[in-house]
Specification:
By secondary structure, the protein is α+β, with helices and mostly antiparallel strands. The protein has 28 helices and 14 strands. The strands form four sheets. It has a six-stranded antiparallel β-sheet, with helices on both faces. It has a four-stranded antiparallel β-sheet with strand order 10-11-9-14, with helices on both faces. A two-stranded antiparallel sheet has the order 1-2. Strand 12 and strand 13 form a beta hairpin. It is rod-shaped, with a radius of gyration of 48 Å. The protein starts with 5 loop residues before the first helix and ends in a 32-residue tail after the last helix.
């Protein structure tokens, strides 16, 4: 009884209380001077109560029996007070004999109480209309009070029951009574007439003639039984047809919903939440069914929205959002053509309206928004924020409740938000239980062993229809994402990291690698590797025909489910946990082979022909992009490298030096610069040719690099000038390194002609940050100045008449003739 709506609960309680009160007051007045007749009527009423028909138009399990005729006869023969007991017995029997389901106690008490009230009301009407002892009245005299009493019996009996049903189902009382009980009025008058005849015969012809009067009652029962059976069959057929239509709608809605890789169960949860909430706020059965149908179809209008907008991971542009805003109108327009017996289209149209009037498409405010749409808005919003979407992460239920509370009175109906939050634990439990049951059914239906018919590997679980739809959508979206993102990263590593992350959505992998062909075309080098064990392959080289990548490079065909251990063993690497691989060739332009893309998995035989198809399709797009990345990295390297010596060039030096100076300033450390210039380099070029000058530059670069730490930088600055950048280097260390580098250059001998050798020499100057300058312009100028001072000193030492000059680091001025001006760029390329 606690499950009844509040109004129905109060009404049932009141009827039971009134019935009990009448029973208690009237029972003492009952006369049992004809006990045999009383017991016979009680037994006959109880037995006739089992001859009942169910009322198929109601949803409460109400029944109608012919016992009312016996109760009416008892009223005429024994009076209303004794008839209370007869009616109570028939009501109890009708509730429990031949019942399809067990009636709760409150329903039995209500039925008994309603008949007690009916009998007392009928007896009062019979008395007021002139009725008396049946033995003292002719049938003609009995007609007026009999018809009046039958009318009162009918109205009280059906009215009390119809009111209870209407309040329980939240439907109008008059329409419930009109649709479910008015048609039964003739049977009450037939029963009253039969009861009057039976009572008259009992009084004038004896008890044995009375049973003949029950023939019309039995015929009435059989007529209603057949009639109700046909109605029930028709209702069952209508219900089955309705269920079939709804199942078809649900299947199509789920198929549309399955296109979204993240919301395959979204509409099922929304439908369950909305139906439970609609019931909690007291909506009728038809309105609840309308909300359930609208929940299934609320996003059908998204068929008019491009997929890339629906799946966009970032914020929408204004134009894209305008495209999204049309889906409620499109959905409502589609559904408006379907003649549902309950409102559906208005709910779909308004499910994006806001309580504060700032929603769309009509800008409705407050209770202008249909109640069903307000319910749907809340449950749809909650499910959207608690599930993973391309444009946001899923929130916990606690965070979601906080957000609902914040939006209460703004976007959402505050009263309904409180109802939803109160129901939430129950809703989540039901959703979890339904999800587990559905998963179990799907797993039971999907597990099929491989066979030539289905093309599955042994033990592989076949996806169901909705998963196939979702997979197809994910494939389209992943290809779209890859196509969009290709070219956004210029380097090979960044490009491959992007491609491999997008691949995960449609092709499973535990490790991935990229092998690129070398310049000679006889081997491949691993330029990218990620995941389990694959990083061991990074920078490894395989020759054509060796390992999986070498086989693909030689045969130009994709390998599927090959053993990755072949490559690891060939390269002498530790045993890998990877058990299957799919390796696809990469081409560019006119089918020029540039390398291989490999995906690895921990499971054996993990890849299918469908995976091969997808990878080859992606490789068609990836090949040109990866080739562009190769060209970019090569161009970038060329732009930062001196082609003659292989040393970093001036641009590279400025990038490195700016970074090191910032670091030194932050850590309060020192950075040293050494500027070096080959002595007499112009004479070498003029006397022995530029090829000898080029050899000299290459030898000097090798000598300088050999004397530096791996994190120091040696740069060919311009012509015969070199610059060395020393990190964390004091003045004393810089001076020592300057002399060491000059000695190394001084040890270089070049054979310029047959039998003629030339020893090189270099002048050098050093400066130290922050003592000699706070920026690279000042440091370079100071080091360059000191290098020319050193050159002048070295020239003086070569003169036979010139005494040795001062040591390098003195502050005495040394005359320098026309030092080469230092040209600094205005901008530095990063």
């Amino acid at each position: 009884m606690n499950q009844l709506p509040r109004a129905a609960h109060h009404y049932v309680t009141a009827v039971i209380a009134i019935g009990v009160a009448l029973f208690a007051v009237c029972l003492p007045a009952a006369k049992f001077d004809q006990p045999v007749l009383f017991l016979a009527l009680l037994a006959l009423s109880s037995m006739s109560a089992s001859l009942k028909v169910y009322l198929p138009l109601t949803t409460s399990g109400s029944t109608m029996s012919v016992s009312y005729a016996v109760d009416f006869a008892s009223l005429l023969l024994l009076g209303p007070h004794s008839t209370m007991l007869v009616a109570a017995g028939s009501a109890f029997s009708q509730c429990h004999l031949n019942s399809k389901e067990r009636n709760p106690l409150y329903r039995t008490l209500f039925s008994v109480a309603s008949l007690v009230i009916t009998v007392q009301g009928t007896g009062l009407a019979f008395h007021l209309l002139g009725g008396g002892a049946h033995t003292q009245m002719s049938l003609a005299e009995l007609a007026r009070p009999l018809v009046g009493a039958a009318t009162v019996y009918f109205l009280l009996n059906t009215g009390l029951i119809a009111t209870a049903i209407a309040l329980s189902t939240r439907t109008p009382i008059i329409s419930t009574w009109h649709n479910n009980f008015l048609w039964s009025a003739p049977s009450y008058f037939v029963g009253a007439g039969s009861a009057a005849l039976a009572a008259w015969f009992v009084g004038h012809a004896g008890y044995w003639v009375a049973p003949l009067t029950f023939a019309p009652l039995y015929l009435t029962y059989r007529t209603y039984k057949v009639y109700m059976g046909r109605i029930e069959d028709e209702q069952r057929h209508v219900q089955q047809t309705s269920d079939l239509h709804l199942a078809t709608i649900e299947a199509l809605a789920r198929a549309i919903d399955a296109k979204d890789q993240n919301t395959q169960t979204h509409i099922r949860r929304v439908q369950m939440y909305a139906a439970r909430m609609a019931k909690a706020v007291g909506l009728s059965a038809g309105e609840i069914q309308g909300i359930k149908t609208a929940a299934l179809l609320h996003d059908i209008g998204k068929l008019a929205v491009p997929e890339h907008i629906l799946s966009k991971p970032g914020p929408l542009t204004q134009e894209e959002f305008q495209k999204i805003r049309i889906h409620p109108e499109v959905g409502a327009e589609i559904i408006a053509a379907v003649p549902f017996p309950y409102p559906v289209a208005p709910i779909i149209l308004s499910h994006h309206e806001r309580w504060d009037g700032k929603g769309y498409p009509q800008g409705l405010k407050g209770e202008q928004i249909p109640l069903g749409a307000r319910i749907l808005t809340i449950v749809d919003y909650f499910d959207a924020i608690t599930t993973e979407r391309p444009y946001h992460k899923a929130l916990s239920h606690k965070s979601a409740v906080g957000l609902l509370t914040h939006e209460s009175g703004l976007a959402l109906d505050p009263t309904l938000v409180r109802v939803f939050i109160d129901l939430l634990p129950l809703l989540v439990a039901e959703a979890d239980a339904e999800s587990e049951a559905q998963d179990a059914m799907n797993a039971l239906a999907a597990v099929r062993l491989a066979s030539p018919a289905n093309g599955l590997a042994p033990g592989v679980v076949a996806p169901n229809a909705f998963e196939n739809i979702a997979l197809a959508h994910r494939e389209i979206y992943a290809l779209y994402e890859i196509a969009q993102s290709m070219g956004t990263s210029l380097g090979i590593a960044d490009t491959m990291a992007l491609i491999s992350s997008k691949l995960m959505n449609i092709i499973p992998w535990s490790g991935s690698a990229l092998f690129l062909m070398n310049g000679d075309g006889d081997a491949l080098k691993c330029r990218f590797a990620a995941g389990v064990d694959a990083p061991q392959l990074l920078n490894a080289t395989v020759r054509l025909g060796e390992g999986l990548a070498g086989w693909v490079a030689k045969n130009r065909r994709t390998l599927v489910n090959a053993d990755p251990g072949v490559t690891f063993e060939m390269l002498g690497l530790p045993t890998t946990k990877l058990r299957s691989a799919v390796v696809c060739p990469l081409y560019v332009n006119d089918n020029t082979f540039i390398g291989c893309l490999a995906l690895y998995h921990l499971e054996a035989n993990r890849y299918t022909e469908d995976h091969r198809r997808l990878l080859e399709r992606i490789a068609e797009q990836a090949g040109p992009v990866i080739h562009n990345s190769i060209v970019f990295e090569q161009t970038q390297e060329d732009s930062l490298t001196d082609p003659l010596t292989g040393l970093p060039n001036r641009r590279s030096m400025f990038v490195h030096l700016s970074r090191e100076l910032s670091r030194a300033e932050r850590l309060k450390s020192q950075v040293a610069l050494i500027v070096m210039d080959i002595d007499g380099f112009k004479t070498i070029n003029d006397s022995y040719g530029h090829h000898i000058g080029d050899r000299a530059l290459r030898e000097v670069s090798l000598a300088l690099q050999g004397a530096l730490r791996h994190y120091d930088l040696c740069v060919r600055y311009a012509g015969d000038e070199f610059i060395v950048v020393l990190t964390d280097c004091s003045r004393e260390t810089a001076e020592a390194k300057r002399r060491e580098l000059q000695e190394r250059v001084g040890q270089i001998e070049l054979e310029v002609r047959t039998g003629k050798k030339l020893r090189l020499a270099a002048s050098a100057g050093a400066s130290v940050f922050p003592h000699d300058g706070a920026n690279y312009e000042t440091l370079l100028a100071e080091a360059d100045h000191r290098m020319y001072r050193d050159k002048a000193v070295r020239r003086g030492r070569l003169s036979a008449t010139l005494a040795p000059g001062p040591e390098f680091m003195t502050d005495e001025p040394v005359p320098v003739a026309s030092p080469m001006p230092l040209v600094l760029p205005q901008t530095v390329a990063g």
